[in-house]
Specification:
This protein has 195 residues and is mainly α. It contains ten helices and no strands. The chain has helices spanning 6-19, 31-44, 49-57, 60-63, 70-77, 79-88, 103-115, 123-143, 155-172, 177-194. Helix 3 (49-57) crosses helix 6 (79-88) and helix 7 runs parallel beside helix 9. It is globular, with a radius of gyration of 16 Å. The N and C termini lie far apart (46 Å).
């Protein structure tokens, strides 16, 4: 088994410092579990080290912008990692922390960008949506409709958003097993939430 490269170790260390004490919305699941899950999906799909690093840091600019900047990420990990993170981020470029813009504004801006993003930059954000949907569907099967209270948007909006992500990635030209897994999960979400 290959040793963890120094860059990957640095990314893991940074991800832990940024998110290591945080839990996912309304859950006791550590954010680090999500970041590692996205990283695993990326590597299992043949992703590069840059993509794996971006997977570990894909929430940094959204959730910890007061602790890390775009410039610091680029200096430590290079412009390719930064581009992948930016393609995965739904907050505005000038977001420095505090209250985020309204959910629908962020998601619509993200979707507009995703439709025209180079598909080589989308593996991490597709893996992120897969990991999020796996978690959401598992919670829904356990708890039913009460899970929607933990999100900024309800059942209808969440189903719309994930369908729209799938459409945006397809329009951008992203292809492969991750997209097909996302398609299956979106179909399951649509069936469960239509009842």
């Amino acid at each position: 088994m290959p040793d963890l490269s120094p860059r990957m170790y640095q990314a893991l260390d940074l991800a832990f410092r940024l998110h290591g004490h945080a839990a996912r919305k309304g859950l006791r699941i550590p954010v680090m579990g999500h970041l590692l899950g996205v990283c695993a999906l990326v590597k299992e799909d043949g992703g590069s080290e840059d993509e794996a690093i971006a997977a570990l840091l894909h929430d940094a600019l959204e959730d910890a912008p007061e602790q890390i900047t775009r410039e610091q990420i680029e200096k430590r990990f290079g412009p390719d990692v930064l581009r992948i993170i930016e393609a995965s981020t739904d907050t505005p470029r000038d977001f420095k922390g505090g209250p985020k813009p309204p959910w629908s504004d962020r998601k619509n801006a993200y979707l507009a960008r995703a439709r025209s993003t180079d598909p080589s930059l989308l593996r991490v954000t597709v893996a992120d949506k897969i990991d999020n949907l796996r978690s959401l569907l598992a919670d829904y099967k356990r708890s039913g409709d009460k899970i929607w209270g933990q999100f900024h948007a309800g059942k209808t909006e969440q189903a719309w958003y994930y369908r729209s992500c799938l459409e945006a990635y397809t329009a951008a030209g992203f292809k492969g097993p991750l997209l097909e897994e996302l398609r299956a999960l979106v179909g399951e979400l649509t069936r469960l939430t239509a009842a």
